[in-house]
Amino acid sequence: MQRTFDDLGTPLIDVTFCVIDLETTGGLAEDVGITEIGAVKLRGGECLGTFQTMVNPGQAIPPTITMLTGITQAMVLPAPRIESVLPTLLKFIGDAVIVGHNVSYDLRFLRAATDRGRRPPLANAVVDTCRLARRLLSDEVPNHKLGTLADRLRLPHQPSHRALEDALATGDLLHVLLERAGRLGVSGLDDLLALPKLAAHPQVGKLALTNRLPRAAGVYVFKDRRGQPLYVGKATNLRTRVRSYFSGERRRKVAQLLRETERIDHVVCPGPLEAEILEVRLIHELLPRFNRQGTRWQSYTYVKLTCNERFPRLSVVRNTPADGGLYLGPLSSTRYARLVVEAIESVVPLRRCSTRIGGSVRLDRAPVREAPCTAAQLGVSTCPCSGATSEAEYTAIVDRLVHALAHDPASLLDPLAEKMATLALAERYEEAADVRDRAAALAKALARQRRLDALRRSGRVHVELPGTGGLELAHGRFVRSWADAAEDGPGATLELPFPIPTAAPTGEDAAGVVSPGPGLALGEPLPREVADELLCVARWLDAKAGRLRLVHCGEGLSSALPVLPTYEPARG
Hints:
Helix 13 crosses helix 17 and helix 17 crosses helix 18. This protein is an alpha+beta fold. The strands form four sheets. The chain has a five-stranded mixed β-sheet, with helices on both faces. The chain has a five-stranded antiparallel β-sheet with strand order 15-14-13-12-16, with helices on one face. It is built from 18 helices and 16 strands. It is elongated, with a radius of gyration of 34 Å. Strand 13 (469-474) and strand 14 form a beta hairpin. It has helices at 5-8, 63-69, 73-76, 82-93, 103-116, 129-136, 146-153, 163-182, 189-198, 238-244, 252-260, 272-286, 334-347, 374-377, 391-406, 410-425, 429-457, 528-544; strands at 16-24, 34-43, 46-54, 97-100, 126-128, 218-223, 229-235, 263-268, 301-305, 314-317, 326-331, 460-465, 469-474, 477-483, 493-494, 549-553.
């Protein structure tokens, strides 16, 4: 039976262990047989029962094995075959944690037996006392053989190469190891399973910082000796996630982070969504220097259509003053924004020069340029600066672009798809890939803008997740969440420690920041510091859409526009 996070967090005193040892005819599990099985079930330091039986391996026992174990052919001849023993053994094991010394060897034989009997493989959690001993007792013993450990630690039972005696000795060793592991803050099964890796970490002494972390969703903050935040992260299981930094994480940044860490704070959240949103807000507030991913919002960019100019053009900008421009974004990087610009300019012949043209200039009489610019000569743009395009003609081009961005993205994406297909048929694959990348960037930017604008338009939103609780949003931003009432009392309500900043729209009057209708709101740009949180909410709503119940919504969250293509490259 596969264990849940709650099972894995069970205090070790409440965990049932089943220590197993097998004697075999030697060699590979697929080719040889089991001659004896011994098992002992333990919980809280008490023996709950033992299991022992000889097994007829169906083949001769080599003399070397008889000399080692004392098991002869005469002893196993009347014994049952493994097919008869297996059901009783599996029932004895149940859902206990399997323990053994070099347990993988024994498990290979049990797996071969279950495969031959067409039984499901064992899915129990497994603890190897040999691996634990390497981490916890390396300074005390010359080797980690069961006999050596039993002798040096003066265990009550001594191994004898007989299954039950060896299992009893392994059980004694387990109790010694659990006592040693407690000094490293090992209190639950999940801690014990991770210990072989944790105990070898150079910063293992700081594991004590994780002792009070709960096995619950939330946010953790690594802090240095001055109390300054170093790193903020989220987790569905705080204890497991933070302790994992002492095991599987081998990145240089993590090693430096752990060296500087002197304290680990945490905030428990009702679920992953609240944890993800709180993580975003804390990163924006604290700016921890080890957070790289979460602090990139400061470099987000926008694609701007300069409608404050007489002849608008596209540009990539970081700031969004209220100057009458139309903005698409924020986008994650300048490179991404330039791909979007290139995609649009591949279809719409906007001017590409940055020359400012005064309102009083009569271009038909006194052009700013004597000849069209290079892009215009190549036929990929217009050049009103040279008087070749009238103001009315250019205004019509800009109007078509605004309509395409807000309501008809197919008029931009379809020509790109046709061009990509034409280039591919001509076997100009690199050029086709460039067009595909531009189309993919534009489609992704438009889809993201559409999703975030729908949230901004939605006003106050109340949703409920049956059996869990509810959530309140204000224009896409988290306000509070609550849990369903439990049998022993009302459910809890959460308001995150860092509320919605006052600079962000939070009231019903904020609906005016976006244009009405189903299209994109390109006028008032979404602040870059808000984008990450709205994306968290959007992903959560999409993932839970099949189960959510919408209680209240100022405006619809859905879009009347068709689904946009992704142009993702095919994977082999």
